[in-house]
Amino acid sequence: MTLRPLPPNATIGIVGGGQLGRMSAMAAARLGYRCHILTPEPDSPAGQVAAGVTLGEYEDPAALRDFALHADVVSFEFENVSAEGLDLLASIKPVHPSPTVLRISQDRSAEKSFLNRAGVATAPWAPVETYEQLQEAVARIGLPAILKTTRLGYDGRGQARLARPEDVEAAFHRLLPHPLILEGVVDFSCEISVVCARGADGGYAAFDVVENRHRDHILDLTLAPARIAPETAGAAQAIARKVADALDLVGLLAVEMFVAGDGRVLVNEIAPRPHNSGHWTIDACPASQFEMHIRAIAGLPLPPAVRHSDAVMKNLVGPREAALWPRILATPGLIPHLYGKTEARPGRKMGHVTRLFAKGALPGEFGIRAALDGLAPN
Ligand code: AMP
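That is the input. Now the predicted structure with adenosine monophosphate docked in place:
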């Protein structure tokens, strides 16, 4: 299948008003498109830079219809939109990625079943609907393990680590909503991800594998490229391609993976949208992840996902890191990005900074912390 290229001045509808929609709208504008945002939030990060906004709930049929009428093609910037809402949109306008892809990615159980069926390795896992199933799963998978809600979890929310048998029952009752899944803990040497784009004609472009460091379950640093063996990077790229093809994806996909202690690459989760671990591409690549996303859903050719520099990206999370803004602006070499959020709550992603290095010159961990000029914690 091919998509007729969306002509200049056409309007791309984006469900969701966050920073991913904001940076997508900025990339779309550069390609001569307008964006129209569906969000319940007045003054949203994406709404601030878009040509238009439909203010409404993602489940409200009237809001969805109004939004669809403003758009020539529709996409989404986060996974917790209702798949039924996307179905309604798809009955009015083309939606990329498809509601089927969204359904897989928004449910950990569906996601892991899909990955395993596609021949992609994950941590050992089991679906858990009842306490008896949880006991059986603990007996099979062993402890330590992680209990997760299947839906609506992000940045570590909806998860409990089970270290001892005594932890099991309380976690089962505390974690809501059910159903849940139990996952074996992967003893990983690092966390990596691949962001790739796939067009309706099967055209494909993937950025280099990057390494992700989390703090309090929230992405803190991304290092591009990941400092891993070429075979490991090759395995990660092959997995991303396999997942994108198996999904018959039209759009952008992030595949988050663990490099296990024994060198195996296991998929943690997938996200069919621009991803925080791809923000470095804005500054280090001729075509960013956001441009790739817009090109893929607009039926434009995908350029190679080349990188002209190495990069480190640091998220600015919560009030403490948001307060570093004047210092960031005054530090040569730091490339600042702010998302237009007025309230800096703890754990909220307020912006990010990128620092570029000559290709091959990405310093080690402590070099990076020095390069960020004390922005990163010790
Ligand atoms: P998630 O919400 O599934 O992406 O999990 C958030 C973070 O928790 C991951 O980035 C890992 O650092 C950690 N994590 C999640 N699942 C596992 C696992 N099965 N083994 C080890 N660490 C995990």
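Residues 124-184 form a domain with the Dna Ligase; domain 1 fold (CATH 3.30.1490.20).
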